[in-house]
Amino acid sequence: MNLSRNSIRKSEQHVKKDPTAFIEGADDTKQPEPIVKPAGRPKTNKELTKPVSISLTKTDQVKLDNQAKRYNMLSYQRDNTSEINLNRSDIVRLMANYLNSMEDSEYLTLINKIIR
User: Fold this and answer.
1) Exposed/middle/buried for 90, CB within 10 Å: 0-12, 13-18, 19+?
2) Closest by alpha carbon to 60, among 99, 102, 88?
3) Are the beta carbons of 76 and 82 closer than 8 angstroms?
4) Dihedral pair phi/psi, residue 34, rounded to 5°
5) N or C terminus of the chain with fewer C-beta within 10 Å?
């Protein structure tokens, strides 16, 4: 084996490559790009809920909770396979949607009837 300075320089030049050529050479154009799935929770178009507080007396809180319990009990008794369980948030959301769907005259009549 010849270890002269010239042979060492020649071997270094032979081994050294342009970095971009090395990087580009590593890519195989015949293989498709792998599918990269983003990490984390999948994006959704659905509107997300966020916690809000409402003020209720103890009596009103019991009445609200009883409505959810009442539905869950009746649902279980009638069909015994129901996987739907209502909670406070569901009851409030249902009532808000119901009131929103009412005509103005019906809405005013109902509210006036409840308040009096």
Assistant:
1) middle
2) 88
3) yes
4) -70, 145
5) N
Residue 101, both tokens: 């769907």
Whole-structure pTM over 0.70, yes or no? Answer: no
SS3 101: helix
Task: Of 99, 84, 94, give the one whose Cα is nearest residue 64.
Answer: 94
User: Residue 23 has what pLDDT?
Assistant: 61
Token code pair at residue 9: 């320089």
Phi-psi region of 89 (alpha: psi -120 to 50; beta: other; left: phi over 0): alpha
Residue type, 100: N
pLDDT at residue 89, as a whole number: 92
Cα-based distances in Å from 25 to 19, 21, 34, 48: 10, 6, 18, 47
3-state secondary structure of 1: coil
Amino acid at 66: N
DSSP code of residue 32: P
| Mean pLDDT split into 10-residue runs, the chain, 116 residues | 68 63 60 75 82 93 93 83 83 94 94 89
